[in-house]
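Notebook entry, structure prediction.
Reason for the run: the old model in the group folder had no record of what sequence produced it. Starting over properly, with the input documented here first.
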Amino acid sequence: MPDDAPGPSEEELDKKLRHLLGDDAAPVEDVEDPLDKKARELELRADNLKLPPVPSFEDEFGERIKALEQKAHKAKSVQQAKQETVRKAEATGTATGLSLQQGLTLAYTIIGLPLLGVGIGYGIDAATGGTHAKEIGMLIGSVVGIWMAFVLVNRANKKG
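New structure, fully documented this time:
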């Protein structure tokens, strides 16, 4: 505190002391201390100079993380749906492929063996000069073809 600043006089201090002790009935006027006045001024200036509150980065990053999590969840759902679709298509395709393979095998067996019998009979007729070997070869080929078809169907049913 500078020496030239006026402080409270003896009389003012005495009045304050009496008032605080309750000896004086009349209230004493408050004398403002120059340091208190200066401190209040500085506090007001500091309040005026305060910067507005800075938005929290945690809020912004939290929102971004939530948005990313939602996108990841959607992408995962889409990927799982695609995988399920592919799995079903493969299962259907495999079953269809096996069915097609079995059907073609049966068709070639039922048609091919009688034709093989006719071909063998034709060869026998040509070599011997006969006329009935083709019919007998076709009959034997048909019987063997039907028997072979039953065997193939039974194998397919046992597999599954």
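Summary: The mean pLDDT is 82.
The old model has been moved to the deprecated folder.
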